[in-house]
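Notes from hallway chat w/ T.B., transcribed later so I don't forget. T.B. wanted the structure written out for a chain they're using in a teaching module, and asked if we could keep both sequence and structure tokens in one place. Agreed to drop them here.
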Amino acid sequence: MGEKILLSSICILLAIFFYYRRVKKYNKAITLSSLPDTIGKIIHVEILVKNHEEEDSNGLRTTYYSYYPKITYSYEINNSKYTNNRYSTLVEPSFTNREDADSFTAKYELNSSVTVFYDPKNLRPLI
């Protein structure tokens, strides 16, 4: 009986923790949507590949890959030029297969325009 109460308590605490994180990210997104924006230009698109190796209890190794699109863009604010590759403050995109990463980056062609949101106090842009 005591184990069930402990397990239930842990589950409730985890649910509260993840709910709080989600609400915090949502509030941050709402705040960011009121930031000023400018037009930037895509100057580089690539997909970074990271391999991960895991070993199970039998010593069997498994390798899998993660694909991280990096979209670099430039923009100008008050006659100062900036370059960045930050996509979001919420979640940086990553994929478990190359096709999905390619599909994601397909909409970001070199020299195309992109809207860049920025914090005038910090000038940390968000595409």
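Follow-up for T.B.: Helices lie at 2-32, 98-105. Might be a good example for the class.
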